[in-house]
Amino acid sequence: MEEYLSQLNESQLQAVTYSEGPSLVIAGAGSGKTRVLTYKIAYLLHQGFPPQSILALTFTNKAAREMKERIASIVGEQQARRLWMGTFHSIFSRILRSEASYLGYPSAFTIYDSADSKSLLKSIMKEMQLDDKVYRIGTVQSRISNAKNSLITVKAYEQSKELIEADQHSKMPLIAEIYKRYQARCKQAGAMDFDDLLLQTNILFRDFPEVLEKYRRFFRYILVDEYQDTNFAQHLIVQRLSELHQRICVVGDDAQSIYSFRGANIDNILQFKNVYPGCKIFKLERNYRSTQSIVNAANSLIHKNKEQIHKTVYSENSVGEKIRVISSYSDYEEGYVVAGKIAEMRMAGTHYTYSDFAILYRTNAQSRILEEALRKRNIPYKIYGGLSFYQRKEIKDIISYFRVIVNPHDEEALKRIINYPTRGIGETTVNKLIAAASDNEVSLWTVLQDPAAYKLPVNSGTANKLNAFRELLESFMLKNDQLSVEELAAVVVKETGIVGSLFQDRSVEGISKQENLQELIKGISEFAELKLEEGAESVKLADFLSEVSLLTDQDNDKNENANKVTMMTVHAAKGLEFKNVIVVGLEEDLFPSLMAKDSLRAIEEERRLFYVAITRAEENCLLTYAKSRFRNGQSSICSPSRFLKDIDAEFLDIPSVASAEDTFQSKRAEYQSAALSSFRNQTKAEDVFSSPVTAAAQQRVSHLTKINDAASSGGNVSALNSNLQPGCRVRHERFGEGEILQIEGTDANQKATVLFDNFGQKQLLLKFAKLTLV
DNA sequence: TCGATCACGATTTTT
DNA sequence: TCGTGATCGA
């Protein structure tokens, strides 16, 4: 143990070895937070705490798994396995399952993901005949979610003047009613949504002191990672569990709080010392990850925020390169520049491999164009995020069968499969089923079991179809007891006819669906194998489902260490590090997001998000922005992000146009072919920039003017172009700047040969090409 | 009830 | 641009 402790610096050591009372560890970016947490757990084990008495809560499955592995390497697999370590959601769903009877839920309750709850909300709103343009589904969902995260139950919501008034003010007075029905339907379906996992845990601990008492005694030490991202529900669970013994250690960095949209409350960490009087505060301020330039640049940025715990993050690594800022004319060009930079940096005699690079963006939508650019340059990449494997249609459909087998009252799953594959049970029948079920306050499945008793108004043909469907499901349920999970899965896909219908489809998508299906079955048997290895006596379908619903894409990553460039949102990058980080799309209304515009708090969160992005970098950080970008199907003009001005200029490096030209000179041929294909997609809008980009110009918001669509003012175009001559420098919306080499032809057929800085030589018909003189 | 076609609308981040 | 939702005809 001593040997391990000697690897820690002074403040890390203090944080690790203090276990007498509550403690708060403020861990700056890259300060060895995970190391402190893992060593602290190892230390506690060494002190004699049995592993099962330690509760360690993380934010993502990935973080939990990695920490577990690191602890295992210190104290051994046997001990590490018995720790209670996982995400809030997974740990408390586990507890809820074993205590479900207290709350009137089945222990095999379903977990509704946000798509499920959205769909349920939609159907409730339809039944209430609410206009979905007034009651925007996303707004309704987040309203209810926020209420739950603040532990406001349906009753409390109805009684809250404030909330009711706010709803009336926003023309949605019936949110309380939606919430009420939603909750009732979830209960009826034996389902909890993500927020319920925390809310119901709180209800459990509030209403059943003996249960709380049991877990209080059970968990003798509690650790929480990423505490700045906890919401009120999470905070209160932790507080309740630690109230008596006060052995709690939370780790976090207020500068990295980026989840307030999900109810995370930065006050939890800011107020920690008031909630736990006598708590010790440790600050980890030495950054081991990044160069001084990066740390200093990030510091200068984050200091622009008002709300924060004071700390001085510093680095004793080398000074390193300044942060480079690169501008492009369009999002297309941004893609090529990024791809080019990666290729260049990899070739530059350095030791970099593709996996040393990460491209980070604000929104998933930005990934497409970057993906295309990397592909054209044959740069291998992997994209995180987007829709996960388990959210794909074909996978969700099959999982829905499993869900119904385990919990037939699961309304959302039942609705998905009742007519998949099509068996002649259409929307009308389903609506009748729903109506009958809610009139009698039972689940759809209950109605299905005895349609006559609930006066389901269907003709005999439909009744037969429903009956056949019910019998099919019942046969599966019977087999669930006899067969292993993977055997059952095979039976389901075969007997429902899913296999048959999927394998007829020879289209590209059809084949990919088949592959996904096989992947799923393989995943199930691997899961079963793993559980048996871990000593489980038998593996039930319910076991698989309970894990799957909390799994995300990043969790089933197979080729983790493949040599590929990583692409992900900034949110997804939290907690990770890369030698080289490229943050793209640094434009107003994108980063910071348009949504954040009118609130200081929101802007500060965006700034923290940017801080997170920069501090992922170990050696080099590159920031790019485009001056025009495709949004909503048309190109729009963008100005550079205000955040660029928030970084002290001394840490920034803005290359001149000329050096950019050198960079790409040798690669022109490739750019040419790339440019050719993007030429096909050329847009109509023409952007004109007032002045060449200089460092100074980049420091302020550039003044951009827009000229009318050239197609609708064709006459003007030739007039505009008549003074174009060889030798002129021109600018093109997509290809950026270049020099005219040659002009040939007359009038409508006039052609210009232009050598673009970043896209090589191109011939353009002046009739279409909207060129402007620089 | 189902499939195809068309129009429209919306776009932040995720356990 | 893309995907979803509504509408229509069979």
Automatic annotation (TrEMBL):
It comes from the Bacteria. InterPro entries: DExx_box_DNA_helicase_dom_sf (IPR013986), DNA_helicase_UvrD-like_C (IPR014017), DNA_helicase_UvrD/REP (IPR000212), P-loop_NTPase (IPR027417), UvrD-like_ATP-bd (IPR014016). The keyword ATP-binding applies. Keywords: ATP-binding, DNA-binding, Helicase, Hydrolase, Isomerase, Nucleotide-binding. This is DNA 3'-5' helicase. GO terms for biological process: recombinational repair. GO terms for molecular function: 3'-5' DNA helicase activity; ATP binding; ATP hydrolysis activity; DNA binding. Residues 6-291 form the UvrD-like helicase ATP-binding domain. ATP binds at A27, G28, A29, G30, S31, G32, K33, T34. It is an enzyme of class 5 (isomerase). PROSITE patterns: UVRD_HELICASE_ATP_BIND, UVRD_HELICASE_CTER.
